[in-house]
Amino acid sequence: MPRYGIDLRLHAYAPGGISRYARRLAEHIPPLLHPDEALVRFYHRRERSPLASPAEAHRLWTPPHHRLEGWSLGMELLPRRLSLFHATDFIPPRWGAKHFVATIHDLNFLHYPQYLTAEARRYYNAQIEAAIRRADALLADSFATRNDLHRLLGVPPQSVQVIHLAADERFRPLPEAQVEAVLRRYGLERGYLLFVGTWEPRKNLKGLIDALALLHARGERRTLVIAGRRGWLYDDLPAYAERRGLGEAVRFLEGVPLEALIALYNGARLLAMVSFYEGFGLPVLEALRCGTPVVAATRASLPEVTGEGGLLVEPESPEAIAEAMFRLCRDEGLHARLREAGLRHAATFRWERTAAETLAVYRRVVAAIAW
After folding, report:
1. Which residues on adjacent β-strands are paired with residue 279?
2. What is the C-alpha to C-alpha distance for residues 10 and 361, in angstroms, rounded to an integer?
3. Lowest CB count within 10 Å: 150, 197, 207, 224, which one?
4. Pair (341, 354) in one structural domain
């Protein structure tokens, strides 16, 4: 009886895109299993909201990204007699299962090492090399990440399976009254510009604020709503907006609940995702599913995720970002075309498909079928 383990520990520490990915797989894989297969879920002991299911689940002591994780996690897994363990955040243990699958979400730590401490750089560089050696199969969220694995680490492209993520089905166009109720709660009016994600340097938020200043100089005075959570080197951002004379035009919203976030996407004129690097860029899909066009960077995975639902710009150019935002603010025809194209494009990304393709990899690895 094949027993597939899936790592859900990260959600107890950082309930962001990677932890949502793991939890959605854990929700969508069980209905696809054969009667003689089992999916075993592994949480951390501090997890407060495990998925409601009668499926087998275990709480572990080992925290994610601990320096001894490779040893201690393997010891905790060993009694569970797993056929395969899926390291959803790319770091497989040294033992604990017959086979390992690792998902590589991005190689941000290789592209922008200056945003990490020296200790963190050493840790991630060692772990990615270990993941490549130990994993029986590597998964990537995007073709861009697969290309990075080949270009930066010499991994043959044919040995990496690209499986796109998807957005939560609850992201959708909402009734006007429902959107307005949420906007009143946050003191907003329709038509603001929106960013969603972790507030850290690689997201290029200072460049986005510079672009907002240029937009205001052209007479298009819009509010920029920055929703998400604090990350590396966040503290300077509010002061930076003040120095640009935009203190009242930039709103930081932290810890927005899911239903309110869906309404924020609906009420926005556009989503601005002009990061220097993204392994996938899930907020792009969330916005497109809500019918909100995107201004996205030309970098990494963002073009393949955006499709025809947005305008692509060079992230180092505040002028280019401002021009794209200006066009989407002023051109109703363009806005309507991108809205419809984005809805069609986003509908092709489905968690059922992601789960089915992932399960196919599990079965292939356990059966020792050549790629």
Report:
1. none
2. 22
3. 150
4. no
Q: Judge residue 31's burial from the number of C-beta atoms within 10 Å of its C-beta, 0-12 exposed, 13-18 middle, 19 or more buried.
A: exposed
State how far the Cα of 98 lies from the Cα of 154, in Å rounded to an integer.
Answer: 25
CATH of the domain at 37: 3.40.50.2000
Choice among 115-129, 235-249, 262-276, 348-362 with the minimum mean pLDDT: 115-129
In a domain, 171, yes or no: no
pLDDT of residue 369: 54
Q: Report the length, in residues, of the chain.
A: 371
Distance CA 70, CA 62 (A): 9
Q: How many CB atoms lie within 10 A of CB 58?
A: 14
Q: State pLDDT tens for residues 243-276.
A: 999 989 999 999 899 999 999 999 999 999 999 9
Q: pTM, whole model, 2 decimals?
A: 0.90
- Asked whether residue 330 falls in the same domain as residue 359, the answer is no
Domain count, the chain: 2
pLDDT > 70 fraction of the chain, expressed in percent and rounded = 98
The string of DSSP codes covering 179-227 is HHHHHHHHT--TT-EEEEEEESGGG-HHHHHHHHHHHHHTT----EEEE
The answer to whether residues 157 and 146 touch, using CB atoms and an 8 Å cutoff, is yes
Confidence (pLDDT) at 15: 76
Domain range spanning residue 72? 3-166+350-366
Using CA atoms, how far apart are residues 241 and 349, in angstroms rounded to an integer? Answer: 35
Encoded tokens for 39? 């999916």
Residue 225 near residue 192 (C-beta atoms within 8 A): yes
Rg (CA), the chain: 21
Statement to judge: residues 194 and 342 lie in one domain: yes
